[in-house]
Amino acid sequence: MRVWIVGTVLLLVPTMACGIAARGDGEDGAAAGDSGRASPAITEEQRRELERIGTLGYTVGGDRAPAARGVTVREDEAYEGYTVYVSANHSGAFIVDMDGNILHSWYERRPKNWTRALVYPDGDILGVSAYPGRIIKLTRDSEEIWDYGDEKMRAHHDVVLGPDGRIYALMREARVLEWLRPVPLLDDMVCILEPEGESVREVACISIPNAFYESEYANLVTGPRFGDKSADPFHTNTVEVLDGRVPHPAFKAGNILVTIREMNCLAVIDPDSAEVVWVNRGRWERQHEARVTPDGHLMLFDNRKYEGQSRVVEYDVISDEIVWSYTAPEFFSRGSGAQQLLPNDNVLITESQKGRVFEITRDGRVVWEFWNPARVRGTDQIARITRAYRVPCDYFEGEFADYLAEGGRVAGRRKSSESRH
C-alpha cells in the first residue's frame, strides 16, 4: 500500500472487513486476489494510447451557446440553497446562490479541468481532476492538502464519502486481463481511501471487471463479442455506497452501487467478496448518476444516446418498474448528465452538453434554471457542466458559512476564471 502525506487530519475509522481484493504493489500493478489473471506490465506506448482513449469523453465544449447566461427562471417552489457545479473549462469548482451570483470558487494551481467536486461543510473540497486523473483535496482558499493518483493509476468521473468517513473513488489502470483478451484495456476500479492522521491510505481497490468474472454474472463479460474489442468496455461513471434503504438483500449497507455506461447497466458489488451480486440492464442507455432515494428507489440520468432524447427515471428495485420519469422536447445530453432529488421532492437536473442546470417539480414544471455563463474560448460553444448539486442554506459551518452569507467573493488568482464568464 502507498501512503500520501496530507496537511490535515481527516478522520480515523475502523479497519475494513477482510476479504477485499486489494490492489497490490507489484511491478505490474495487478490486483491481489485475482489469481494472477492480470498480465505482466504493458508497454509504455500501450499505456499512453489507452490513457488517450480513456479521456476522449472529457470534452470542454458543449452545444452552441444560447444568449442566456446565469439564472433565467426562479420560482417560489424552488428549493432554497447553494448550488455547486464544475465547468469543463475550469480547473476547480464554483458555488452560486439562487440568483446565480458566484459566491466562491476553488482553483487548482495546475491548469486541468475538473469533472466532479464534493464540498465539505467547512469549505474544503474534493475534486476529480481530469488530466492526469487525480483525486485532489483543497482548502477553501484553494491550497492543496493532498492528492491521490499517479501516471499509471488514474482517477476519473466520481468520488463520494461513505458513512464511515472513508473516500470511495473511481480509478482506472491500463492492464491485460488474460481471462478476457490478450490485449490491454482500461481496468476500472473502486478504490477505498482512509484518512489516517496526516496521511491518506489506500485500503483496497476492487477491480470491476474481476468482480463480474468472479460472480454469477460472469457470462455478461465473457461472451465472444463482449466489448467488440473496445479498450474501455467497463467504463464506469458513478459510485454510491449503500446504506440499506433499498429493501433487497443485494443492497445491504456497505455494498457499492456502480453505473457502467458501456454495458448499459447498474451493478452492485459486495466489497467483502469483491463480487457483483446484482445487475440490471436494458431499460436505459449510456446512463449516469444512479443514486438511492430516501424511499429506497434508484434515480438515474438515462442518456439514451441513440434515441436522441434523454430522460430522468426513478426505478423501484423490488417491483422492477419505472415509477416516475421526466423528459421534454430537446432535453438531451450525449454524455455526462446528472440529477439530484431535493428535500422538497423537486429534482435538480444537469443537462451537461447544454451547460444547463434546472430544477423541476414532479409534474415537470421548471422552477429554477441556470445556464453556464462560461464559453469555450475562441468558439461559440457553451462550456459543459458535468455535474451540479445543491446543498441547503444551513449546510456550511463556521467562518465559511458566515462568509457565504455575506456574499462571498472570488479572490486572488481565481479572478482570472471569473473574467471568462
Give a quick precis of the structure:
This protein is mostly beta strands and 421 residues long.
Strands, helices and their partners?
Blueprint: E1 3-5, H1 44-54, E2 61-64, E3 70-74, E4 81-87, E5 92-96, E6 102-107, E7 114-119, E8 125-129, E9 134-138, E10 144-148, E11 154-161, E12 167-175, E13 185-196, E14 199-207, H2 208-213, E15 236-241, E16 256-260, E17 265-270, E18 275-281, E19 288-292, E20 298-302, E21 311-316, E22 321-326, E23 338-341, E24 347-351, E25 356-360, E26 366-371, E27 381-383, E28 385-392, H3 398-405, H4 415-418
Antiparallel strand pairs: 1-14, 2-27, 3-26, 4-5, 4-28, 5-6, 7-8, 8-9, 9-10, 11-12, 12-13, 13-14, 15-16, 16-17, 17-18, 19-20, 20-21, 21-22, 23-24, 24-25, 25-26
Q: Any idea of the CATH topology?
A: Neuraminidase
Helix/strand structural class: mainly beta
Average pLDDT taken over every residue: 84
Strand order within the widest beta sheet: 1-14-13-12-11
CATH superfamily: TolB, C-terminal domain
For this entry, give a set of tags.
421 residues; Neuraminidase; 4 helices; 28 strands; globular; disordered N terminus; disordered C terminus
Can you describe this structure?
With 421 residues, the protein is mainly beta. The chain has one domain (3-418): TolB, C-terminal domain (Neuraminidase), CATH 2.120.10.30. It has 4 helices and 28 strands. The strands form 7 sheets. The protein has a 5-stranded antiparallel sheet with strand order 1-14-13-12-11. Strands 3-26-25-24-23 form a 5-stranded antiparallel sheet, with no helix packed on it. Strands 6-5-4-28 form a 4-stranded antiparallel sheet, with no helix packed on it. β20 and β21 (311-316) form a beta hairpin. Residues 1-40 and 411-421 have low confidence and may be disordered.
